[in-house]
Amino acid sequence: MTDEQSGFAGLESSADFAAVPDAFQRLWTPHRMVYIEGGPTPHEENCPFCAAPKLDDETALIVARGEHAYVLLNLFPYNSGHLLVCPYRHVALYDDATAEEVAEIAELTQIAMRVVRQVSNCDGFNIGMNQGRVAGAGVADHLHQHIVPRWATDANFFPIIAETKAIPRLLGETRQAIADAWPKAAPTS
């Protein structure tokens, strides 16, 4: 089909198409469709932290597996290398976790810090848990600890002015780099 037949004759750029310009900048995030299509309460029936260990590591973004807990990349990272440490068991609160789960979560967190520091040369970390929906937990029914690497130079205007985070590395690349650098010996918990 020629340009004349398709009705696009003489059009040279997207600016030539019918549109009403606005002041918005577009940041394309197709990976968020999983949550958009899930509706307002996507995790009530299908817990992503229960489903992830059943998948292969690359698909689930898992970087390491322990006996009681595992480590995966956050699908919606605050920064490159934003990890989550989750028990395999579906438990909502830290004080409901077993001593073995708590110990392994702590050990995996320490290993993750060392590995991310090695891989990304970060200057510090934010580490924490949001317990319950009211505390900001996106997946409130399954315990998970955030490990967010920080750099002295990671501040920019995007989050403040545009409510947007710029993530310089793709999730798959980040997962592979962290998984490759992860110590091959299993945690000792």
TrEMBL record:
Active site: H144
Keyword tRNA-binding on entry: no
Keyword Ion transport attributed: no
Name this polypeptide is given: HIT domain-containing protein
Positions contributing to substrate binding: N74, G136, A137, G138, V139, H146
PANTHER family attached to this UniProt entry: AP-4-A PHOSPHORYLASE, HIT FAMILY HYDROLASE
Keyword tags: Nucleotide-binding
TM regions (residue ranges): none
Native source species: Orlajensenia leifsoniae
Molecular function GO terms recorded: catalytic activity; nucleotide binding
Residue interval(s) of motif Histidine triad motif: 142-146
